[in-house]
Design brief:
Number of strands: 0
Shape: elongated
Number of helices: 3
Structural class: mainly alpha
Strand content: under 5%
Length: 70
């Protein structure tokens, strides 16, 4: 009974995905595929780290601790 449920469930998901693909933008569909690619994710993390590092180098005051008014 469980295998038949799984088969029905997988088919339902497939149908939903096909219907969803018709309404989603090509960019969203492309990103959905990329999010499962380990190389893409590693590169994305590296790009984010680089941008943050550059911002901190360009504006070192952001690294300073600020006192709060308590």
């Amino acid at each position: 009974m469980i295998p038949s449920y799984a088969a029905k469930h997988d088919t339902t998901v497939l149908i939903l995905d096909q219907e969803e693909e018709q309404t989603l933008s090509p960019r969203i569909l492309e990103l959905r595929k990329k999010i499962h690619d380990a190389d893409y994710l590693n590169d994305a993390v590296q790009r984010i780290a680089f941008v943050i590092s550059q911002k901190l180098i360009d504006n070192p005051e952001e690294l300073m601790l600020r006192e709060t008014d308590e």
